[in-house]
Amino acid sequence: MSALSGRGRALVRRARLVRRAQLAPRRAQLAPRRAPDAIRRSDLVRRRDEAGESTGTVLLAGAANFGIAIAKFVGGLLSGSTAMFAEAAHSVADTVNQLFLLTGLKRSERPADESHPFGYAQEQYFWALLAAVGIFVLGGGFSVYEGVGAIRHPEELGNLLIPYLVLALAFVLEGASLAKAVRQVHNEAQEADRSFIRHLRISPDPTVKTVAFEDSAALIGIVLAATGITLHKLSGAAYWDGVASVAIGVLLIGVAAALGRENKALLVGQSVPAPLRDDIRDVILDAPHVSSLVELLTLRFGPDEVLVAARVDVADGVSGEQIEQAAEEIDRRLHNRFAEIGHVFIDPTDDPHQPD
Hints:
Low-confidence stretches: 1-46
Structural class: mainly alpha
Shape: elongated
Helix content: 55-70%
Oligomer: single chain
Strand content: 5-15%
Strand order of the largest sheet: 1-2-3
């Protein structure tokens, strides 16, 4: 953009002040004007539906894990199986983690205020990170500790009928919880036009991802526990029970590390994926009066909250009023196309790579 006249730059400043005066009250005077009311209402309805579905997924998983934990402890006491105790600790950790996830969901719904102008959506990542720590300590750490003790000091098992019945019941309940999580991920993947695996890998929703990982690990853990008990009984080698417990612990530590890495990246501030950034760039460059995109910054504040800040160079001879109209058009187009975009900042800037 060629150098603006003094009047032109004054109009640009006025345009920015006008936009700041039109901010939505719930954004505490720091966010730009939001999308039209019809789009905003449909966006809020969609977010409430998704939050309700996530809450249902967490509640089902928590109820299932609580019942399973009690049953596994009883089975462990009756059989003396270390693997059963390891699985009981796994279910206790999962139950505590559901409480963490539910806390994150509820606290993230608080409206923006003066001290948190972009809202509290990132609370989900904090509580999901605590859930990952819970899996590591309560599940993985305890299982490895108990397993090593059982290998060093093996004990004979008691009646195995009850442990087998408990593991079978746990498998059914964990499978039902996983099925709900998978169904939600599948629906979200279809809406985003992605494959199931890709959506699960890049999804910014920590709640469903954590439940899906936990339940998958739980099913594998149940198989490991049953295998350890069976090998112990068939071979007479008591260490198999401890080996199964250590394997369950290693599995949980791996899941905790993966979830912790994902949530840490989102908690410290992460941009949207490259394909989405490219789509945003195309929308901005296609807007009237925009000659080039100097800089594009995106930041995810939550599963459904994305900030877009762009420095654009406009065509020669464009007035301050036209610059304001171009910014409004970019704002409208981005909100129309990407429901997760909540904040858009456009800054007219000279492109240093363009000749004056």
